[in-house]
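Researcher: Let's do a round of design. I'm pasting the structure tokens now; please hold your answer until I've finished.
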């Protein structure tokens, strides 16, 4: 059955409650159910071995080998299931399907609490949803907690591509939460990582950081260099967010930006009017002021 405790409510205190409860070991009954299921499967195989006349030694070997294999395979399936759910939440959040993201998190099965890594993936999914709702500081609190655990270290060693995505998300969240020193530290770590192709994920964090630190020229250069990748490798909503940030960075020269990016400028204005950038501004007063100005000056 779904574990409703995985869903963060609108109360900021619930974020701290989530951090305290989710990384803890799964409930005893959850662990007993998982281990009991593994023992049952091993018992069936052992019983078949006994019926087949393999003797005590053969039956014992069949039982324990099956038990160990089921446990290992089960844990792997649990972690993979949690990782897949995180991807689904990420996709839903990028496409602004927040109701879908909430439903995916709410329907997380009980066994995802058993493994430390699967619990970590669930935390990342919650942090992603919080940031999509504009609760940047709450989301950042979860990422800070995760950085103190084993998940990110394990990802860096075993799944570097996933680590790059999560580090990029962490840096981006820190920017929108106004924690620029933290964002810079994570970006420096991301740049120094020896992972594969990370250009897209670097750009998605660097552009907001450069905009908020006032380096409009560098933000524009990064956008132009990675524009095609940002356009086709992310959702169009994410691409428009980047375009909106650039328009904000160049607001004193807005005419020049709009003439060079006229199609995007119209799409950005329409998206602003629909409220699609509201969550970007919840902890960025200057950006909120610009968004309001852009709406009223149409």
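Researcher: That's everything. Go ahead.
Model: Designed sequence:
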């Amino acid at each position: 059955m779904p574990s409703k405790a995985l869903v963060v409510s609108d109360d900021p205190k619930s974020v701290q409650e989530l951090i305290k409860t989710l990384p803890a070991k799964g409930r005893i009954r959850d662990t007993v159910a998982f281990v009991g299921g593994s023992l049952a499967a091993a018992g069936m195989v052992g019983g078949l071995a006994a019926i087949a006349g393999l003797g005590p030694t053969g039956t014992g070997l069949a039982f324990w080998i099956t038990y160990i294999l089921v446990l290992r395979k089960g844990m792997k399936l649990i972690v993979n299931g949690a990782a897949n759910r995180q991807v689904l939440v990420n996709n839903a959040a990028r496409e602004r399907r927040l109701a879908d993201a909430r439903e995916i998190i709410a329907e997380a099965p009980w066994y995802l609490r058993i493994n430390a890594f699967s619990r970590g993936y669930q935390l990342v999914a919650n942090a992603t949803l919080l940031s999509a709702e504009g609760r940047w500081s709450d989301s950042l609190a979860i990422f800070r907690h995760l950085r103190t655990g084993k998940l990110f270290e394990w990802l860096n060693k075993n799944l570097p591509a996933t680590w790059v995505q999560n580090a990029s998300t962490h840096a981006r969240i820190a920017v929108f939460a106004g924690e620029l020193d933290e964002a810079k530290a994570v970006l420096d770590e991301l740049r120094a990582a020896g992972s594969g192709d990370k250009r897209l994920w670097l750009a998605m964090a660097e552009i907001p950081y450069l905009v908020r630190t006032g380096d409009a020229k560098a933000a524009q250069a990064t956008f132009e260099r990675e524009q095609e990748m940002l356009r086709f490798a992310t959702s169009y909503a994410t691409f428009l967010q980047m375009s909106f940030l650039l328009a904000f960075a160049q607001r004193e020269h807005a005419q020049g930006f709009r003439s060079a990016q006229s199609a995007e400028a119209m799409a950005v204005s329409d998206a602003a009017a629909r409220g699609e950038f509201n969550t970007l501004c919840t902890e960025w007063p200057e950006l909120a002021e610009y968004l309001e100005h852009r709406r009223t000056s149409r």
